[in-house]
Structures are given as structure tokens and as C-alpha cells.
Design a protein that fits this description.
Elements: E1 2-11, E2 14-24, E3 29-33, H1 40-48, E4 55-60, E5 63-64, H2 70-74, E6 77-80, H3 92-96, H4 98-102, H5 109-122, H6 139-151, E7 157-161, H7 169-186, E8 189-193, H8 197-203, E9 206-211, E10 214-220, H9 230-237, H10 243-247
Parallel strand pairs: 3-8, 3-9, 6-7, 7-8
Antiparallel strand pairs: 1-2, 1-4, 4-5, 9-10
Helix pairs in contact: 5-6, 6-7
């Protein structure tokens, strides 16, 4: 569904991405992990077109993304931002339905509201939440509203940027369960960036470890616990001792 080939990106003398190759298929969640500053967010921004890579290609359904094809791609993705990124001045339902009301082929208000309430219920929130404002919600509820917004327009691709940041362990588990179920039920292609190894174990189908601008390791989530790669072992264990600390 999404492919990245030999992607490079530098900022001045700092080479952030040094030849990234990745593929993500429909119906799976590819989780990208790695130390802070390893280039995870830059990779995501290159895929979305927010940053132009210096070299390499991003493919969507086998076709290279270009200025003429990117609009079609952007019409088919949803994203859950790290901080939920809700509009404070809008009630919840308008946040969820934002794309429906403002995108191509905009829906009518009644239709958009009904779709928003349906999506809220899908992420475990009652319909009465629709008329509340983000400031009236807990952090976990805001995150679920953000997830409802991500799926409201029926995307084919979902991006999750640190989806459990700032949540307690119980709510983090709730969000992970929702993400896992949504990816499975909708059959979408999902790419997640996270540092939370508990979250990785719950939601990942495949994992890619980004280190020093390259994919250091990739494999099925089950191999995380057994592969001997020293960088992977240190990152998974969260140990201060090892090659990441030495090289970083």
C-alpha cells in the first residue's frame, strides 16, 4: 500500500535519513521505533509530503507520489496526532466531522453529525459527548475523539504519532486495543511511531527499528524478544548501557 525506497533527508550537515526502505501493506500495522532524534518524525513528514526528501521515492499503491498524485493520497489518509490536536472552539462532533464538512464532496450537516456520532460510538464514547467541547474531556477521551476523527472519512491509510503519550497505563491499553481493532476491522494500512514498547507489543504486526538514519532491524513483532541485535536488545530493554548510549 505504501512503499519508501532509498529515502534520504539532510538538514544542513546533519543527515537524518540515510537510505530508508520500508513497505506497509493493507490490513497491517507497521510500527517504527527508535531513539529520540533518529528520524521517525522526519520519515513520516516525508511520506505525507510535508517535507521534500533529498533523494528517494514514496509510492502509493505502486505509483510514485508526485504533486499530481499526492492529492488523491491525502484524500485517503487519517491521522491521530500525538496531542490529539482538536479544535478548542468546535464541539466534539464538528472536530470528528471536520473533513466531512470541509473536504472534497462535503457532506451535509445532518449527515456529517450522524457519521461523527457513529465514529464516537465506535471508539467507545457515548453520543452525548458530541456536543461537548474538547476542554470538557479527559486526556483519554480527547485521544479517542482524535481517533474517531481519523477514521471518519473512511481512510485507506492511518498514521499514529505516539498514540499513547501522556496516558495512564490503563487508558494506553484502551487506545491500543481500539487501534488494533480498527486496523483489523477496516483493513487499512497503518504506520505508527512510538517509544512505548508495551504499545508496540499490543498493536504491531511488523516492527522497524530506525537508528542513525537507517533501518537497523525489521521483523515480525514476535521476534522482538529473541533477536540478538544489540541495538534492538538495548532499546527493547530500555537499558542505559549499550551501543545506543555509546554512539548517541
Amino acid at each position: 500500500m505504501i512503499g519508501v525506497s532509498d529515502l534520504h533527508k539532510s538538514f544542513g550537515a546533519a543527515a537524518v535519513l540515510r537510505g530508508i526502505d520500508l513497505q506497509a501493506a493493507a490490513g497491517e500495522n507497521l510500527v517504527v521505533i527508535g531513539p529520540s532524534g533518529s528520524g521517525k518524525s522526519v520519515l513520516l513528514k516525508c511520506i505525507l509530503g510535508l517535507i521534500a526528501p533529498d533523494a528517494g521515492e514514496v509510492r502509493w499503491k505502486g505509483a510514485v507520489l508526485s504533486p499530481t498524485t499526492r492529492a488523491d493520497f491525502l484524500a485517503r489518509f487519517g491521522m491521530l496526532f500525538q496531542g490529539a490536536a482538536l479544535f478548542d472552539s468546535m464541539p466534539v462532533w464538528r472536530n470528528v466531522a471536520f473533513r466531512l464538512l470541509n473536504g472534497r464532496g462535503a457532506a451535509g450537516v445532518a449527515e456529517a453529525r450522524a457519521r461523527a456520532i457513529d465514529c464516537l460510538q465506535r471508539v467507545g464514547l457515548p453520543g452525548r459527548v458530541a456536543d461537548l467541547y474538547p476542554a470538557e474531556l479527559s486526556g483519554g477521551m480527547q485521544k479517542r475523539v482524535g481517533l474517531a476523527r481519523a477514521i471518519a472519512a473512511g481512510p485507506e491509510v492511518l498514521f499514529f504519532d505516539e498514540p499513547t503519550t501522556g496516558l495512564d497505563p490503563v487508558m494506553a491499553g484502551v487506545i491500543d486495543t481500539l487501534i488494533r481493532d480498527i486496523v483489523r476491522d477496516l483493513g487499512v494500512c497503518a504506520i505508527t511511531i512510538t517509544h512505548d514498547m508495551a504499545s508496540v507489543r499490543r498493536i504491531a504486526d511488523r516492527v522497524a527499528l530506525l537508528h542513525e538514519g537507517r533501518i537497523r532491524w525489521r521483523g515480525d513483532v514476535g521476534a522482538l524478544e529473541t533477536d540478538p541485535d544489540p541495538v534492538l536488545r538495548q532499546f527493547v530493554a530500555g537499558s542505559p548501557e549499550g551501543p545506543i548510549g555509546t554512539l548517541g
